[in-house]
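Quick one:
INPUT:
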């Protein structure tokens, strides 16, 4: 009855939330140091990289199909990609870097991955918010539908988190996952959808591009930024299917890896 009424569930959930919060603060201190400048760098890193890419293409003077603003296009393409790349690249090293924490009975592999990836999500969200304010105040380029941008970023985080759990699982059994993930994220950049729009492509290539789940994320984010200014193509249920499948497989993989992991 206690399980049916949920009495033991809520205290357990509160414990795990505190664990994830503590792990997030630990990860923040480990990556950026414990002074204020280190914490600020959490948001500056994606902001500086995204801003530099946007500025370079803006100064190039090249126009884009559909009349979209060059700076906003490249920034809102790079920042979600930064989230994807950051989560995936840190996935294989997550367990090895925090293995000693597993001696604490409340700490799980899922907690470790959640802490890392939520921190990455917070950093990119802060950077994207800063860019939205900048382009809105300076150039009048306010997002048409901000809710779609938020949804797109959440789906990207969910997709990347699921894939990162699978990479972390694989890293328990082989070092090759850590070695090839960085290379894969760079080689796959041209097909992710970060720097092209589907309507730019010939019809046959459009169909092929829409098989790639991340293309739907970038199209959704651009729909939120530009609205009806440019045509966009995305399927949220298709993307949700990918997110659900990757996360279910990832959690199952982490459970198996935990049993095989030697402390």
């Amino acid at each position: 009855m206690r399980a049916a009424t949920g009495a033991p569930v809520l205290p357990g959930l509160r414990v795990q939330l505190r664990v994830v919060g503590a792990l997030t603060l630990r990860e923040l201190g480990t990556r950026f140091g414990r002074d204020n400048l280190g914490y600020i760098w959490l948001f500056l890193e994606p902001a500086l990289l995204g801003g530099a890419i946007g500025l370079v293409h803006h100064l190039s003077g090249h126009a884009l199909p559909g009349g979209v603003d060059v700076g906003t296009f490249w920034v809102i393409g790079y920042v979600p990609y930064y989230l994807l790349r950051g989560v995936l690249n840190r996935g294989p090293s997550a367990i090895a870097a925090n293995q000693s924490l597993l001696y604490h009975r409340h700490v799980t592999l899922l907690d470790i991955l959640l802490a890392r990836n939520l921190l990455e999500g917070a950093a990119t969200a802060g950077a994207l918010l800063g860019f939205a304010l900048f382009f809105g105040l300076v150039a009048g380029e306010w997002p048409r539908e901000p809710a779609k941008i938020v949804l797109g970023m959440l789906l990207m985080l969910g997709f990347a988190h699921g894939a990162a759990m699978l990479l972390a699982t694989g890293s328990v059994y082989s070092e090759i996952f850590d070695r090839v993930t960085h290379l894969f994220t760079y080689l796959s950049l041209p097909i992710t959808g970060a720097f092209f729009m589907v309507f730019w492509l010939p019809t046959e290539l459009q169909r092929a591009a829409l098989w790639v789940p991340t293309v739907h994320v970038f199209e959704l984010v651009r729909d939120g930024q530009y609205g009806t200014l440019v045509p966009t193509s995305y399927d949220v249920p298709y993307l949700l299917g990918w997110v659900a499948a990757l996360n279910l497989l990832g959690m199952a993989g982490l459970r198996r890896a935990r049993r095989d992991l030697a402390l």
